[in-house]
Amino acid sequence: MNRFRMIAALALTYVVFAILLNSVGTVILQSIASFGIDKPAASALERYKDLTIAIASFAVASFLPLMGYRRSMMLALAIVGVACLLMPLYPGFLTTRLLFASVGFSFALAKIGVYSSIGLLTASKVAHTRLTNTIEGLFMMGVLGGNWLFSLYVDPANPGDLAWLNVYWTLAALCAFTLLLLASARLDESAVHERGHNRSAADAIMEMMRLLARPLVYVFLISVFLYPMIEQSFGTWLPTFNNEVLKLPNAMSIQFASILAGMIGVGRFVAVLLLRRMNWYTLLNACVIGMALLVIVALPLARDVAARPGIDWFHAPLAAYLIPLLGLLMGPIYPVINSVSLSSLPKTMHAAMTGLIVVVSALGGTTGSYVTARVFAGLGGIHAFYFSLLPISLMLVSLFFFKRKLDRLPPAAIAGEAA
Prior knowledge:
21 helices, mainly alpha, disordered C terminus, Growth Hormone, Chain: A
């Protein structure tokens, strides 16, 4: 097994899906401009993505060991590569919905493959947490790069022009390159294959159900639901917020939104260093409290911003810089809680657990985006972003109960119950 090549393939696979998944905010903005779609209708793209992720994850998670994690990721890249080719060939909102449905289905395959492979590539909890944070950090670097990539194809003078769809030729080529890299890599999956061949379909489904019934897992999944409510609320609607509330041009709105993704990535890389010196629970509590304070400070600065012709990066409203800083505090939360949970389970259970994580994350993300869209359309962007204070507060509570359950139940006992 070529460990370095496999890790590189996992990271690049995640980067590809980072660009595609998190382009939804940019595509919503451009769909409104290019296809004449209103906000509630455009927000359906989030549901096409997230609900497909949830359904696919639940359906295939426990069966992926039979297919193989590496092969599942290759299939995922092939599907989205074809979907990307269709975008410039058949432009329209119907094709756009098909793209995000394909991305959602494929991401379910890819994420379960990536997370389960991390367990096969690491031998300790510390190594698992570091590799998870590193790959999730690269995911956000992909989001950052993707936003800039899309902005290069948007015509500032005519933001509704369909030339922005040409970005999908580049993305299709990136899918093909990553697929070839995975094809040339090797991963020892013998441990999960042996166990998988002895299971029936009923056993695979019951495995996920048994996990869901455990108090620790149940409390953990509440946190997993809440986090994407927060991240997707900002990540999906920040380009539109920048455009309509902060009065920035379309291309600049996308570029400013990319700062959020970059800060999330930086936060995850920094967490790798901080976790050597401090407890994960202390770090996450500091992040959640900091997020709430930053929302309270930043949003009043976004009120009553006047449009200014010829605005540039040096004269943008202060809120345009402050809101993306939330990413620095968001960053560590998701990979850390996922790693703490997964590393407490036997490696043969990682696919089933990751399936539950993906399902619940998708439901949380689509809920957050939908509620934000409705509030944005009805009350404006500032009120929509104030909504994030509710899941932020609930996150603090869920982390407390997660930590208490974890302290009362040793990792060995968790593994024993789940097996």
